[in-house]
Amino acid sequence: MKHLIMNNGLTIPVLGTGTNTFGKENHDFNGKITYDTKELRSAIDLGYRLIDTAIYYRNEAVIGKAVKESGLDRSEFFITSKIPADKEYTKNNDRVIHYVDKSLKELDMKYIDLYLIHFPLESDEDNLRVWRVLETFVERGLIKSIGVSNFNENQLAYLIKHATIKPVINQFQSYPGKHNQALIDFCKANNVIPEAYQSLAKLDAKIKDKLIDIAKPYNKTWSQIILNYQVNEGMIVIPKSHNQQHQQDNINIFDFELTKNDIKLIKSLTNDEQP
Ligand SMILES: NC(=O)c1ccc[n+]([C@@H]2O[C@H](COP(=O)([O-])OP(=O)(O)OC[C@H]3O[C@@H](n4cnc5c(N)ncnc54)[C@H](OP(=O)(O)O)[C@@H]3O)[C@@H](O)[C@H]2O)c1
Q1: Is position 77 within any domain?
Q2: Residue 274, pLDDT above cutoff 50
Q3: I want to staple 11 with a disulfide (CB 3.0 to 4.6 A). Which of 3, 4, 116, 198 is the partner?
């Protein structure tokens, strides 16, 4: 597995697994929590070590259970969780403290590697207020790194300017057709690692056909082409699959190099029908 060094000197695997439907009835985001760790255990067996969860997903306890069941040392893993922006979780500092403590309890871990603000709050000042609380968790060693998710350039710039601890990562939606290139470039220019979510799920059918064509000479799948492209662009990727073969394909992306032309082509793909 390849790693990147974050702006705080700590390392992060470039590829991990999403989990937002793991441990849930019918693989449904809103499904009942089953505590079934099968999908995650399969991903861990295949070599996934970065695991992306969130309070919203309601499955932090499932993640903690799978990590324990793996028998591997906690230090082998890179666990990400996120605090929702909603008032219930963030309306005052006590709420933030309560819910971060709850994440630690649910995961049943002594520390969390990366904690993100899941969505921006109503104002930059509110973001900064929650951020200051997360900074205290870093000072106490309960969280190793902090970052954000779904922040635009302005929201990120404000936080970078006022924070004591700089965000290490911005996690946002990115896939061929909707790369969010300006945000990727802004993050990289500011030494904040861009992390893509939904690299695969939202792909337009016509773009998928183009990627299938690009994949042929490499003897790879369209999903492998996307993930290789994104990692090569300096992004972290967190594809999620309930299917072991797909999980295996998605981690097997480090043994080929896209040509400059193909990189250019993938970068230029846009969803024409999008406004
Ligand atoms: N920060 C945020 O606001 C935010 C928002 C959304 C998601 N996320 C995180 O990002 C993770 C990834 O996003 P996501 O789960 O929505 O979407 P995704 O990983 O882009 O795609 C998941 C879908 O792609 C299919 N798939 C995966 N690998 C495949 C392959 N090799 N070939 C064909 N199909 C494949 C899966 O079906 P199979 O199960 O059948 O393979 C599943 O339907 C989430 O799990 C979550 O951890 C964060």
Answers
A1: yes
A2: no
A3: 3
How far apart CA 149 and CA 185 sit, in angstroms, is 16
Residue 111 sits in a domain whose CATH number is 3.20.20.100
| DSSP helix/strand/coil, 24 | strand
pLDDT in tens, 188-197: 999 999 999 9
For 132, how many CA atoms within 13 A lie in the half-sphere containing its CB?
Answer: 9
Pocket of ligand 1 (CB under 6 A): 18-20, 52, 118, 149-150, 171, 197-201, 221, 223, 238-243, 246, 249-250
User: pTM score, two decimals?
Assistant: 0.97
Residues annotated catalytic, as ranges: 57
Query: Residue 191 is part of which domain span?
Result: 3-202+235-242
Residue 79 CA, ligand 1 centroid: distance in Å: 17
Closest by CA position to 63, among listed 95, 39, 86: 39
CA 158, distance to chain mean position in Å, is 22
- Alpha-carbon gap, residue 213 to 224, rounded angstroms: 13
Looking at the chain, the whole-number percentage of residues with pLDDT higher than 70 is 99
- 198 C-alpha to ligand 1 centroid (Å): 5
Quote the tokens at residue 135: 């900074």
Domain count, the chain: 1
